[in-house]
Amino acid sequence: MSKFALTSATAAMMSLFLVTACADESADKESSSSATSAAEQEAASQNSVMDQPVDFSSAENVEKSFANIRQQAGDSSAKKLENAMDYMMFYDLEVKRNKEVLNKKLDGKTPNEIIAMVKRFK
Questions:
Q1: Percent of the chain beyond pLDDT 90?
Q2: What is the 3-state secondary structure (H, E, C) of 18-75?
Q3: Residue 92 lies in a domain
Q4: For residue 105, which of 115, 91, 94 has the smallest C-alpha distance?
Q5: Is 19 contained in some domain?
Q6: DSSP string of 87-119?
Q7: Which domain holds residue 79?
Q8: How far apart are CA 10 and CA 15, in angstroms?
């Protein structure tokens, strides 16, 4: 009988927890609708710069592109791109640690495409 009481109490507590969590979640959704639209606008801004081709034709153009990415998408997105390029520099057998070969391979690709290329290596 005590097992039954313990199981019932546990089930009641879990039900109460789930109902409370669902109520909190719906209240959060209603109160954060304006915050969501601001977050969506920021994400759209990041996507637009992350979907524009990077000019790897010269070192100056690469720096300009990275500055633009850092300014519009933020440091974290620029760091992801840099990490992806570093990874390709050392692990892409076609590149053979040659920056000119890497630049030719990546010229015209978007930051999102470059990051996706690295994900395929792993």
A1: 57
A2: HHHHHHHHHHHHHHCHHHHHHHHHHHHHHHHHHCCCCCCCCHHHHHHHHHHHHHHHCH
A3: yes
A4: 94
A5: no
A6: HHHHH-TTTTT-HHHHHHHHTT--HHHHHHHHH
A7: 32-121
A8: 9
The number of distinct structural domains making up the chain is: 1
pLDDT > 70: what percent of the chain?
Answer: 61
- Contacts of the segment 59-63: beta carbons below 8 A, 24+ positions apart: 62/103
23 part of a folded domain: no
Number of alpha carbons in the 13 Å side-chain half-sphere of residue 6: 3
The torsion angles phi and psi of 21, rounded to 5 degrees, stand at -65, -40
Assess if residue 48 is contained within a domain.
Answer: yes
95 CB-near residues (< 8 Å, 6+ apart): 88, 89, 101, 102, 105
Confidence of residue 13 (pLDDT cuts 50, 70, 90): very low
Q: pLDDT category, 120, cuts 50, 70, 90?
A: confident
